[in-house]
Each structure stands twice: as structure tokens, then as C-alpha cells.
Amino acid sequence: MTRVRMILQYDGTGYEGWQRQLTGLGVQQVVEEEIERLTGEKTVVHASGRTDSGVHALAQVAHFDTASRIPPEKFAYALNAGLPRDIRVAYSDEAEGFHARFDVLKKHYRYRLQHSPHADPFTRNTALHVYGALDVEAMNEAARAILGQRDFAAFRASGIEPESTVRTIYESRWTDAGRLVTYDIAGSGFLYNMVRILAGTMAEIGMGRRGVSSMQKALASGLRSDAGPTAPAAGLVLTRVEYRNFDTKEFIPCQTYW
Amino acid sequence: MTRVRMILQYDGTGYEGWQRQLTGLGVQQVVEEEIERLTGEKTVVHASGRTDSGVHALAQVAHFDTASRIPPEKFAYALNAGLPRDIRVAYSDEAEGFHARFDVLKKHYRYRLQHSPHADPFTRNTALHVYGALDVEAMNEAARAILGQRDFAAFRASGIEPESTVRTIYESRWTDAGRLVTYDIAGSGFLYNMVRILAGTMAEIGMGRRGVSSMQKALASGLRSDAGPTAPAAGLVLTRVEYRNFDTKEFIPCQTYW
């Protein structure tokens, strides 16, 4: 058996997230079915982690095992010939012993606000429209408060009980590019809905609906009710995954359009 | 009657172009129906020009006349409340005596190539995917050859006979941003399919399928067969329209995402 590693890009608009749901199609299922069509083998594709319904990926990492004689680096081309246009394999190679989920060191997400009086047709599925004054400096003050190792109990979807709610955040920064205001976060891992709740809380801080100190308060209390709303899935994209000997950044050289 | 001027943005993917066709919905019709829903008046919306099926607009200019008491600058908000999310009114004002089509001084279009080994899900409806070596310098040499007042008879869709095929080109330039290679053109006006045929011809020059001199040859002969293929509509966007006293550039401050 050969272990094949892939970098996947997908527009999550038309999918119920990475994993198959009762309500609709998952990206995982579409890729697995295309591998089966190509190789005749039923296989499981393991990703670095799940993405929610409507969330996008500029660089999701996944692996699968195959007995096929297709050279691992050719799988990208072979799969793209049959995959729908909203899912692409940007890169593939052989990676003996590699595990897409267990071996993750850092994951990077981006959340985008489209900031203008009127919504924009071209970012309607990839950014959250906001209007009015936005205090990006206050948002950045709140963003800095989560750097380092913290307990993010307040920033997880209710009803889900993970073993630990402590995570390490390496990067947390808003960039104001005028019409687009972008939040970049890198961490050891993220709780369910964590990035969207963080983005929703800081968006409210930027709009003056809550103070910068509410970030500290939620971190300290661990209460979901002290954090802000969960920002819509469409604004979120998985931008990069880092492993000890593999970094998607090297294979997706330019993201000027995002 | 009040003349209302608008800047429209639309993702042309789901439409048969600006004008209604037998085969499907036009952007014009959708906007006219929303005005009627709002004011009770049947009206005609005049644009700076038609865009083809699948072609986009970052800034299309249009006007209409109304007896409604809605303040002209509020029409943008009122119409956006009912328009589909792929059409937005970015700006509206009163413009006595203004005509969106007759008064045009310059129009600007952009054509985008998405240049990488694999197609990109996020630009699948807004750029043409190309792979392999691309000689952007040669493309720019060809682009410069059309500057000034020229006869573009070779660069128009066959079967259509305009009064004159002479147009003035003010800007014609390719920019290589790595994953996106972008062509910007500004002119006094354009023949039917002219920008797409120019882009298709220069893309072939960039890929080494034809020489830079073929541009000069087609200009000189006026024969459609001397020019290259018509590039797909999805890569084309109307980016700016200039009038004597009105320029859409002032109202769309940032296009970082395009």
C-alpha cells in the first residue's frame, strides 16, 4: 500500500462541510468516490480536521492509502479530471508514515469582513458584510489578548465537551485593507466553532457593541454567554496547515485573490 | 420625473448578460422588476453598454427615470433590500440630463488568467485557467501594439457589422501577480467580443502558440481569422466607466479581492 498525501482546495458553499451529513454532501465523500472511480478501491480520506458546512479551504491536507499504480504525484491530475470544479487537488505526493490529523503542528485560519455600505456580490459566499464604523485598533487589542496558551472554554459551541479546552495561539491579527478587513489566526488546534466565535466577538468589539475588556472577561470566566455570536461560516477559510516536515505554504505560492 | 444614476455590481455567472435573452434572465430585467416592485412604475434601465452572458461588472453605470419620491441617493439601499445577492447597487444619485450610454468617455475592462498547474475553485467563474510557461513580456509587447486609434475589424465577432470598427485604446497592459495574470484595457469603446478576442489572442502569444507579430498582422489585415480565439466570458469584468463629470473609480475605493 502507498500512502498518498494531498493538498485540497474547496469552495465550501455547496457542501455540508468536510464530513458527510444526513442533510447533504460532504467534501470527504466526493473525494473518496472519485478515488474509488479511479482505482476501484474503497478508501477513507483523512483530513487535518473537519471544516463546517460552508467553510472553505485554500489548503486542507489529507491522506489515503492505495494499492493503485498511479504515481502519487499524478493523483492530483487524475482526480481533478473527475472532481467537481469547486474541489481541486492542488498537490499530491507519497508520504510514508504521515498522518494528516495526528501530525498537525499548526493550523491557520482566516476570517474576512467585507466592509462597505452595500454588500458585494463577489464576496457574498466568502466574507461577512459589515457596514458603519469599525474600530480595527480595538479589534487588534482584543486579538492580542488571546496570544499564548489559554483556556478557550468560552469560545466553543455549547453541547460539545472536549477533553481539554486549552489551546496555544501563535498568531492573532486583523488587517484593514479597506473594503476587506481580514483576521488571521494560527494555533495548535481549535475547538468546535472557536474561530467563528472569536471573529464574532471581535467584530462586535469593532462595531462598538461590546468593549475590548469583554475578551479578557470571557477568557477568565470560561462562559459561552460572555463571548459574542458565532460569525457565519461563509467568512471562514482554512488557509494553511503546518507539519514537522511539510508546510502547505510552500505549495500555494500566491493568494492575491483571497 | 427624476433621473436616477446607479453604479451596479454583478456576478454575471447566473445571467444571460445585461440584456434579456430568450434563453434566460438578463441583469437589466432583474433590476427593472425590482424598481417596479418598489415604485409601481414600469421603467427602462439604460446601462453604459451591454455585457455578455457570464461577464461580470465591478462598476456598471446605468440610469432610469422615476416619479417616485424615494430620494435618489436612497435607491441603492431600497433596491438592495430586494435584489438577489449576485446583483448590488453600490451607489445611486440624481443626475439630471445624464445618459449612461451616450455620455461615456472611457470604459475599462479586466481579463484574468489563473496561472497554475491546477485550476482554482475560487476563481472558477472569474478567471480562465492556464498552465505551463507563460511569456508575459511577449503578451505585453502585443498589448502595446494596440495603443492609440486603430481599426479593430479583426477583433470583432463575425456576423455583426458596426458602422465603424475604429476605436481608441488608452491603456493596454498585462500584470503578472503569479497565480493571477491580469489584463487591463481602457478604450473609447469596444466592438462586440473585442476584449475577449484580444485576450484570447494574447494568451496564445503568451503560451507560444503564435508570435507577437500576429497581433500587428491581424490589425493590418482586418481579418477575424488572423486573430486568436475568443477567450471565455467568465474571465472578463467591466471594472470602470468614465464620464466627463462622473467616474466610478471614486465610488469603488478598493478592489483588493479581484
Question: What can you tell me about this protein's structure?
Answer:
Two copies of one chain form a homodimer. Chain A contains five helices and ten strands. The first copy, chain A, is an alpha+beta fold. Chain A has two domains: 109 residues, Alpha-Beta Plaits; 134 residues, Pseudouridine synthase I, catalytic domain, C-terminal subdomain (Alpha-Beta Plaits), CATH 3.30.70. In chain A, strands 1, 2, 3, 4, 5, 6, 7, 8, 9 and 10 form a ten-stranded mixed beta sheet that branches. In chain A, helix 3 crosses helix 4. The longest helix of chain A has 13 residues. Chain A is globular. The model of chain A has no long low-confidence stretch (mean pLDDT 95). At the A-B interface, helix 2 and strand 4 of A face helix 2 and strand 4 of B.
Brief synopsis:
2 copies of one chain form a homodimer. Chain A has 258 residues and is α+β, with helices and mostly antiparallel strands.
Helices and strands, with pairings:
Two copies of one chain form a homodimer.
Chain A: E1 2-10, H1 27-39, E2 46-47, E3 56-66, H2 75-80, E4 87-94, E5 106-115, E6 128-130, H3 136-144, E7 148-151, E8 166-176, E9 180-187, H4 194-206, H5 213-221, E10 236-242
Parallel strand pairs in A: 3-10, 5-6
Antiparallel strand pairs in A: 1-3, 1-4, 2-3, 5-9, 5-10, 7-8, 8-9
